[in-house]
Specification:
- It is a single chain.
- The protein has about 400 residues and is of the alpha/beta class.
- About 40% of the residues lie in helices and about 15% in strands.
- The protein has helices at about 5-10, 35-50, 60-80, 95-110, 130-135, 155-160, 185-190, 210-215, 240-245, 280-295, 300-315, 345-355, 365-370, 390-405, and strands spanning about 20, 20-25, 25, 90, 115-120, 140-145, 165-170, 195-200, 220-225, 235-240, 255-260, 265, 320-325, 335-340, 355, 360, 375-380.
- The two termini are about 45 Å apart.
- The protein binds 4'-deoxy-4'-aminopyridoxal-5'-phosphate (PMP).
- 4'-deoxy-4'-aminopyridoxal-5'-phosphate binds near residues 93, 123, 126 and 202.
- 4'-deoxy-4'-aminopyridoxal-5'-phosphate (PMP) binds near residues 94 and 223.
Length: about 400
């Protein structure tokens, strides 16, 4: 079934506007996605009629919203096919989700001279928390290298594994290059050595179906704002067997069972990891975003975005002096590129003046840039609400850039 893109676009009010007198072309979906009206309406509805702090009241509004918050958790559980709803922890986003594991798992399971494996492809938020853990524990960070296409070298990964490896943390999709990693393969290899795996799903969750049980990952992190939901909300999925063994990360209200000055005992899952007032409004609105994309169909989204990727790759490749960075066989709808003798910031500024939003820079993945010996790239990341006509506009804008600076 093909998607009715014209109709879909009317669901996103922000798309219907002009920037510098030109229709907005939004190609920065890797940084954040736009919100459908149902998500915006949900936030307005909650603040207009339902707002009340959850979990703490016996009054009507509090009980009602608590139920809606817990229903949202179940929506997420089904969406990623987690076994239990208490394996779904609401966080502020991928960054907090990864920090929770790096701190809490690290506290319990990582000791001096232990090893942690990440990859060259990681976003800073899946590098720095592990570096800090290594500093705290005097542990060692090992990095899976990539080839010139931007693909992980699995043979090298296997060589990095040792009896001291405590956890592997990699993304499913690289935000800088669009590479889709063979996470199932990596999890399979890791589990043969009894090593748990955290998957950073910030760039994969919005592009196709996610099944954490089938993948068999031990942890999975993602952000609501990259999934057509609100900012300030995200998810940490963790297998119950790990979460139960891990100490709390943040502490305060709601995560406790009993507090006295002598001793505090902790609440059960998932509340042990949800200290303080959670972002219940956005959790509920995020569940609406999930229902929205489920109604469109994750497979249909993946197919259409693939079509956009192929179309854009062919067009951009035909431009002389344009080099695509990241040419993996398996990619999401994201193209990173550089232009010969033209700085990406200069190009980005000209493209912006044509109403086209692309991202420029290192994309919070400096080690990827170092690997390719570049400072940064231009990045166009496409969503199911984008069109081939918009890609044509980007193509023409790049030709103009070349004329101006060439
Ligand atoms: N990991 C990846 C792969 C990302 O693309 C991003 C966001 N660019 C993050 C982690 C961090 O997500 P957030 O800023 O929403 O916490």
């Amino acid at each position: 079934m093909s998607l009715d893109i014209k109709k879909i676009r009317t669901d996103f009010p922000i798309l219907n506007q002009e920037i510098y007198g030109k229709p907005l072309v939004y190609f920065d979906n890797g940084a954040t996605t736009q919100k459908p009206q149902v998500v915006i309406d949900e936030e307005v509805k909650i603040y207009s009629h339902e707002n009340s702090n959850i979990h703490r009241g016996v009054h009507f509004l509090s009980e009602q919203l608590t139920q809606r918050f817990e229903d949202a958790r179940k929506v997420v559980q089904k969406f990623i096919n987690a076994k239990y709803d208490h394996e779904i922890i609401f966080t502020s986003g991928t960054t907090q989700s990864i920090n929770t594991v790096a701190y809490s798992f690290g506290e319990r399971f990582v000791n001096e001279e232990d090893e942690i494996i990440i990859s060259t492809l990681e976003h800073h938020s899946n590098i720095v928390p592990w570096q800090l853990l290594c500093e705290r524990k005097k542990a060692i960070l090992k990095v899976i290298p990539i080839n010139d296409a931007g693909e992980l070298l699995i043979d090298e990964f296997e060589k990095l594994i040792s009896p001291k490896t405590r956890i592997v943390a990699i993304n499913q999709v690289s935000n800088a290059l669009g590479t889709v990693n063979d996470v199932k393969g990596i999890i399979n290899i890791s589990h043969k050595h009894n090593i748990p795996v955290l998957i950073d799903g910030a760039q994969s969750i919005q592009h196709g179906k996610t099944d954490v049980q089938d993948m068999d990952c031990d942890f999975f992190a993602f952000s609501g704002h990259k999934l057509y939901g609100p900012t300030g909300i995200g998810v940490l999925y963790g297998k119950e067997k790990w979460l139960n063994k891990m100490p709390p990360f943040l502490s305060g209200g709601e995560m406790i069972k009993k507090v006295s000055f002598e001793k505090t005992t902790f609440n059960e899952l998932p509340f042990k990891f949800e200290a303080g007032t959670p972002n219940f409004t956005s959790a509920i609105a995020m569940s609406k975003a999930i229902e929205y994309i489920q109604a469109i169909g994750l497979n249909e989204i993946a197919d259409y975005e693939k079509e956009l990727l192929n179309y854009a790759t062919e067009k951009l490749q035909s431009i002389k002096g344009l080099k695509i960075i990241g040419t993996s066989k398996n990619k999401v709808s994201l193209i990173s590129f550089i232009l010969e003798n033209i700085h990406h910031y200069d190009a980005g500024m000209v493209i912006d003046k044509m109403g086209i939003a692309v991202r420029t820079g290192h994309h919070c993945a400096e080690p990827v840039m170092q690997r390719f010996n570049i400072e940064g790239t231009l990045r166009a990341s496409f969503s199911f609400y984008n069109t081939k006509e918009e890609i044509d506009k980007l193509y023409n804008a790049i030709l103009t850039v070349k004329q101006m600076f060439g």
